[in-house]
Amino acid sequence: MKRLNRPEAGPACLKRFKHGVDNWQALDDSGYKPIVNHALWEMQDGLCAYCECELKGERGHRGEIEHFRTRSSKPQLTFEWSNLYLSCHAMHHCAEHKDNAKGGKGYSADELIDPAAEDPDDVLTFRESGDVAPREGLDAAARHRAETTIRVLNLEYRKLREKRRGRARIYRLDEPDVVAILASWSPEERMDYVRAELQALHKEPFSAAIRQLLKGLL
Length: 218
Known about the structure:
The chain contains eight helices and four strands; from the N terminus they run ααββαββααααα. By secondary structure, it is mainly alpha-helical. The protein has a domain at 173-215. A hairpin with a 5-residue loop joins strand 3 (124-126) and strand 4. Helix 7 (187-201) runs antiparallel to helix 8. The longest helix has 17 residues, at 158-174. The protein is globular. The two termini are 20 Å apart. The mean pLDDT is 89.
């Protein structure tokens, strides 16, 4: 889960639809849904908004449009650009888990980290082991939101941990002594290198632990 930069102006076609007049199916029937899907895919660098897996599959399918605040809880936000993300189709984590009875029990969207409104790296720690946990030193409210986000999206799901761990191992094989090497560089050289690496990692799936490692060297 990473910080996303949402363009202020979403697809103009969304303004054609209004809560109370149109239902969500109307967007699909209109033929505009692929336009919204593509805008979200661009915003998210082709990755799931929650687990950072690569959004591609058969016939070029690019994830499923997800309502951060569900249509059942906030129907007035059905067509609001600020409430839309793309999520993967996984049954055991992300949007599917959030919205089913098990994942969605006992939470409100205000208790979740909204990746286009705040930086998840400020409240979540992704370790090279693949684990994710609340950051140390959070106040009680922030810790609750971190724990709720991990639980509701099931970010500690075994297969997600394995994929994050595998990505970290690949990076370490390529750059085994990156921390020691960068420590010997000047602050300016180190900053330039880290920024370039972070830019390169931005579209890489499951790179949260490496991103946080590098950000810690700035």
